[in-house]
Task: inverse folding
């Protein structure tokens, strides 16, 4: 091939993924056009991923697994994609997401921004674009981050979704993200969310002061066997805690937080008041 681009798997995760994709394709004797037909993507897309010019996506990785016969195996392209996510998501977060999908109950506390599971697409895109502007991630990674979030949100629409308890610091609803129109739509979604069955939404008001037990976001995951895991993030990494004593302490802190926060009805009233101020 005259235009065949030499790949350097050591130049980065996307390049390593692309090199493996090319190897899998060529082992089967397929052209990029043939793989495109088998996956439902364009040959241009296949080429861009192979050469590392475009990061793969979860949907494309799963399509590749079906084409290559690797679905649900340790060698799957989806597994490789999960490794790529460490360049977009905090270290430790993919492991948390795996447990989140198994959860029967989720308890979330967030400061400063609306929790990801409750974000509108527009709100999420503004946050991702801000990360691009600051040089934290690339534009392609921003698209991946938004798509990843949308997939996580679909977990709340499944036939038996987890019970979801959410406490947001008041800063989450008063910090304007993306301008008044986007923020008003985001607050409207929160009000609608509060009406859903199996959901409880509360606001931890500024007046709580020193009684607020957490200074960082906290996620608590109750699994089908009723064991509980705790996930917390710093600015640079996430950590999934399984040790019973530490998890019990965080769970107790969450219950104190919920008790000191506004009631669900008063929380919705505050959100509505802030939303009207955006119009």
Result:
């Amino acid at each position: 091939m005259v235009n065949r681009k030499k790949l350097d798997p050591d130049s980065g995760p996307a390049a390593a993924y692309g090199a493996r994709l090319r190897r899998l394709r060529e082992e089967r004797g397929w052209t990029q056009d043939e793989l495109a037909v088998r996956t439902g993507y364009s040959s241009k897309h296949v080429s861009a991923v192979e050469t590392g010019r475009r990061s793969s996506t979860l949907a494309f990785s799963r399509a590749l697994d079906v084409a290559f016969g690797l679905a649900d195996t340790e060698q799957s392209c989806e597994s490789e994609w999960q490794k790529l996510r460490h360049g977009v998501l905090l270290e430790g977060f993919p492991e948390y997401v795996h447990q989140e999908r198994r959860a029967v109950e989720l308890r979330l506390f967030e400061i400063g921004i609306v929790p990801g599971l409750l974000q509108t697409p527009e709100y999420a895109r503004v946050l991702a674009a801000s990360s691009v502007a600051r040089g934290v991630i690339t534009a392609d990674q921003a698209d991946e981050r938004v798509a990843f979030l949308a997939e996580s949100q679909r977990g709340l629409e499944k036939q038996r979704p987890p019970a979801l308890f959410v406490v947001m610091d008041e800063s989450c609803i008063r910090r304007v993200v993306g301008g008044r129109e986007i923020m008003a739509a985001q607050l409207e979604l929160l009000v609608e969310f509060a009406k859903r069955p199996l959901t409880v939404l509360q606001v931890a008001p500024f007046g709580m002061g020193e009684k607020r037990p957490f200074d960082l976001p906290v996620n608590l995951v109750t699994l089908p066997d009723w064991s509980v895991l705790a996930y917390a993030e710093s600015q640079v990494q996430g950590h999934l805690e399984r040790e019973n004593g530490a998890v019990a302490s965080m769970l107790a802190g969450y219950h104190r937080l919920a008790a000191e926060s506004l009631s669900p009805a008063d929380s919705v009233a505050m959100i509505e008041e802030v939303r009207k101020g955006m119009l």
In short: The first strand starts at residue 105 and ends at 110. Strands lie at 105-110, 163-169, 199-204, 218-222, 228-233, 238-241. The radius of gyration is 21 Å. Residues 244-260 form the longest helix (17 residues).
